[in-house]
Fold this sequence. Notes:
The protein is of the alpha+beta class.
Amino acid sequence: MKKAIVPLVVVLLAICGLGGYAFKSMTAAKIAAAAASSAANSKAVTKGDLVVNVVETGTIDAVKSVEVKGLVTGRLSKLFVEEGDHVKQGDLIAIIDPQETRLVLQQNEAQLRGARSGAEKTGISIGESRLQVKAAYEQALAKVAQMRLALKIQPTLTTSAIKQAQMNLDTAQEERRRLVQSAHPIQLASAISTLNEANANLANAQADYVRQVELEKKGYVSGKVVENAKLAIDLAKTRLDSAKINREKIEGEFKSELAKAQEQIEQSQAALETAKANSIQDEVKRHDYLSALADLERAKASLHDPDVMEKQRQQDLATVSQLQSVVSDAQRQLRETDIRAPITGIVTKKALQVGELATGLSQFSSGTTIVKIEDRTTMRVKLDINEIDVAKMTLGMPATIDVDAIPKRPFNGIVKKIAPASKDSANSTSSAASTTSSDAVVKYEVEIVLTDAVPELRSGMSAKCTMRVLNHPDVLLLPLEYVGKDGKKPFVEIPSKKPGGVAERKYIETGAASGSQVEILKGITVGTVVQKPQYKGPARKGAMQFGNDE
């Protein structure tokens, strides 16, 4: 029995020894793993340069680029340049057919000559008017004197007028008796006789036509005879119509002459009554005399008419001046048919060919581009910079430009312009457009001007621009993920020196930051080891679940 217990004890002791060794090994492994994890999540504060660059690509173009357009419309008759030619300011580069412009000039010159002739004619009319109003005034004076004399001899005139009126009445009555008793009956009888004869001829022609038609049916006469019979009817009708018209004419003329005779009798009767009533002509003549005095006053007022015409002449002269300006403008437009280079540069594009229509600049048209000229002594790059980076940029900030077409040759430049408004706000024309673009990245246009451009640079070349917007040398630095925030206060966590111990939270003051590092101003010193703060936000989802906890 004792022999059996000894081996059992030995086995138990061996098992206990092996278990203790295993437990010790597992504890050491956990401590080593914790130490490794702490080292992986720790970082020492370093000292270095905090640099932030804004890098964006764009295309090169000339600062001064001109689309050459004409001020007159016409067909391009000559073009003296090709793409790539160098031109100087003032060089003749094209000619627009001047025929139409010259025709307009000739028409304007003709209108100017007409206006000048009108002004001269008005001047002559003024002289004639002065003579006429003077003559009218003198005539009015003479009429006043005449009316004064007539007022004196009126009684004699009244007696003479009564005698003459009685004679006129007798003559008118005699003329009416002649019309009624002799002239009209003879003419009317002749017209009636002609009308009756025409009726008889028409009846005979109609009867003959019926007879000829019957004979034609029997084959005794030809169709020509029937046609002649038909023509005879038409002729008889025409003569009948003419006879009726003649009778009506005679009756109308008689009525008209009788009315005139009656009217003459009545006029003569009235004239006789007027002549008999001439006892009141003294008053009439007195009124005539007063009327003559009024005409004299009007004639006196008309003496100022030439002055009014002189005002009209001044307006004509103003029209002449206006047309002179129109002619001068037409002459200028004729000169504008010669298209000259507005700047010195390179012809980069020919937009028109000889024979094509070039529309001139006006308030209704933007005009047709003939050629495009670029002054490549100053080149630029336009960039679209997001709102975060553009806030860091200032005018005059230096930039480095790398051109793909000219490798290993960086160029220098400066920030020349920064747009005051974003491209979306500048282009949106409605609230709907603004709403559509609200979720897009807001960008601003920035212009970089090259300070050392070379002739090899061409418009359209791709360029990468680098702007150093932040440079803080020799500062304390930490990666962004090692700085936590308690509200608005930044802090770091200093790991405990004891395994499994609680990290110490220390508040710090931060400065500028880049995309990966932050500047430490106060709170810790260089070499201080910190660990990543524990992330306590909501659980990450999707691709974010693989990121680092902050």
